Amino acid sequence: MKCRVCRGPAVIDVRRHNANFCVEHFIEQCERQVAKAIEAFDMIAPGERVLVAVSGGKDSLALWDLLIRLGYDVEGLYIGLGIGEYSDVSGDHARRFAAERDLTWHVLDLREEYGYDVPTAAAATRRVPCSACGMSKRHLFDRVALERGVDVVATGHNLDDEAAVLFGNVLHWHTDYLARQLPVLPAGHGFPRKVKPLVRLSERESAAYCIVRGIDYQVEECPMAAGNRHLGYKEALNTIEERSPGTKHDFYFGFLDRAAALFRSGATIDAEGLSACVRCGAPTPGEVCAFCRLVERAGGHEPGGAVPVTLGRREQP
Ligand code: Q46
Ligand code: ZN
Ligand code: ZN
């Protein structure tokens, strides 16, 4: 197996691109794919500040590393979800990554800050944990982004994630979700721009990137993901991809090129009716936003203390 670029010994084959790469050229390939996604979808403009949502897993740490290598002004945000040992180990990986590289990052712990965690919120709402978890994370990314005055929130969703979500949305014809399933969600109504710069990299590639870059990450899956329907969609797509490499890419990017706009035109996104939540100030169609209602149902409280806690190096203003 030879590297496509230098003909030296290759360490990874990327069947989707019908190519093998050595360590050096695989790193370059990942950088190129991320740069291409950022440029193609206008994710980050020169000089903009970026907040990376860091979970301690392979995707978010690969993303943080790649954005730094590409020269972006990046800081991290880790949210303590309170999912037992999984969260403790994830937090340790994030901490070590930031400390070894002297990076600026923030930690916000749900239990300390709001008096609840993902397991208690899931039990209180009697819904799948990912629902309460996702809502909490989105709210806190927005909040910290506004507090820090950053322009963009970047998340580590990769091609496998996006293709699986798309597959689920198509299977159930969730047309409102299809209208919003884009690698960039523009800023507006108090929300910062949201971007997914890893959409051109597969899960396997982000794991391989971490390995060749010596990035130690949380390898365990979240224990609360069991029963998450996306895992089943991922497995189904993996079976198809195995037989015809490139299918996930064609499915997702074909949707963006040829179908996404059709769903957007029929979407019922009513931004006009949004006002500020009476408790937290976040934009909401009602009086109290869904996040504040979740905190209340989970037995939590309004935020206390000076948060987020900023760790690592502070940039000069
Ligand atoms: S952390 Fe949270 Fe994920 Fe665990 S509970 Fe679900 S959403 S699976 S990225
Ligand atoms: Zn090479
Ligand atoms: Zn609120």
Percentage of residues in strands:
5-15%
Helix-strand topology string: EEHEHEHEHHHEHHEEHHHHEEHE
Secondary structure class reads alpha/beta
Q: How many domains?
A: 1
**Oligomerization state:** single chain
Global mean pLDDT: 92
Task: Tell me the distance between the termini.
Answer: 49 Å
| CATH architecture label | 3-Layer(aba) Sandwich
CATH homologous superfamily annotation: HUPs
- Unreliable spans: none
What integer value in Å does the Rg equal?
Answer: 20 Å
Structural overview:
This protein is an alpha/beta fold and about 325 residues long. The chain has helices at about 25-40, 60-70, 85-100, 110-115, 120-125, 130-150, 160-170, 175-180, 205-210, 230-245, 245-260, 260-265, 290-295; strands spanning about 10-15, 20, 50-55, 75-80, 105-110, 150-155, 185, 195, 275, 285, 310. A 7-stranded mixed β-sheet has the order 7-8-6-3-4-5-11, sandwiched between helices. It has a two-stranded antiparallel ribbon with strand order 1-2. A hairpin with a 4-residue loop joins strand 1 and strand 2 (about 20). It binds Fe4 H S5 and zinc ion (2 copies).
What brief labels describe this structure?
two-stranded antiparallel sheet; binds Fe4 H S5; 13 helices; Rossmann fold; 317 residues; single chain; globular; alpha/beta; seven-stranded mixed sheet
